[in-house]
# Entry
Amino acid sequence: MADDVTTAARTWHTGQRGSIARARGRRSVAGRLSASAPERDLQPSWGVLPSTAEIAGAVVQASESGIGRTTESPAECRPTEGTSQRVCTGRLVVRIGAQPAIITSLSTCAPNQHGQSHWPVLRLVVMHDAETGLAQQPCWGAMFGPEAVSEQELAEKAMDSLPDRAVILGDRNFGIFSIAYAAQQRGIGVVLRLTDVRARKLAGPISQPGEYRSVWKPSRWDGGARRGWPAEALIEGRLIAARVGRGKSQQWLYIFTTLELSVDEIVGLYGRRWNIETDLRSLKRTVRLHHINAQSEATMEKEILMAVSAYNLVRAVMCLAARRSRLDPRQFSFSHVLNVVEAAWPKLINTTGKKQHDQEFFKVLDLAAQCTLPKRHKQRSFPRLQWRRGGPLRFRKEEN
# Structure
């Protein structure tokens, strides 16, 4: 795995210097990475940062096929041993995440419920590896207008890039029949959280924690008239009811799964779904995917793929550093490892041979292994804040 990632890095950095598309692709990824950290941390290592015009030119003329290849097979970077592999007997466990993105300077703006919008809003669905956080190739579509698509439709499309015998973790937004049925048709296992109403309609009254054998059939609310489900459309699985939380904060958790694992293993596996929230935060804020500057759909597509490529580059370094130091990839700070990658980028570009490149790359892994998150004995607590609305002065204040 280290050789594969090293070879990929050399292809980006030194392998084909005569290719203008690859050179501009490198500059575009560099622009995505450099814009995510404070300038004071980058200026000593970069010297001169790429300008906005250079980054835009790199994105416009980058090779679409070359960009796409960097987001096609993140599963290859997973550690050889991990929790998800022990629990799911070698299956790749992915989580579905959805996020909106604002696009500026695009000529077509779809209307929303308030009229014509000022800029388009994109709906983006990404599947992440539950263990390493690596992202699959994203799927996107319009959020408003006549061509608007739902998160569930995009999630079904994103399943096509998953390997065989994968497992999908989804929250209540994706705990519907169409997602489970699409996964079953592709040979993919599911661990989906259901709403209280849907769980009770599926298994009847539930008064005790446990598991209930269920046969899930589509109802008229599952898009039967529009989707046209076949008569034999059904999903055989288990509905798991569990009580989670402590004291008065306990609540019911309903999970539908097609996996033959114990109740505790299923509940523990679903508990790892929360990592998708921090992964989406890294994509939206650290890599700046929440706001896309594009003047054409082709440029928008390249911006998205470049952002995911930069994200996966950092995640791959975290994964290899975890294997080298025998740690969990989730123990590392994404932003700190990103700073390490940025500082090492010029040295990796200027290496003259494979031996020198490998030496520099292993230094990167050793530095990344030091970027661990602090071990807190209890969760951090902050006072709740709110925005004061109205008036010329808007500021945040503590809410009593």
About this structure: The CA atoms of residues 361 and 386 lie 45 Å apart.
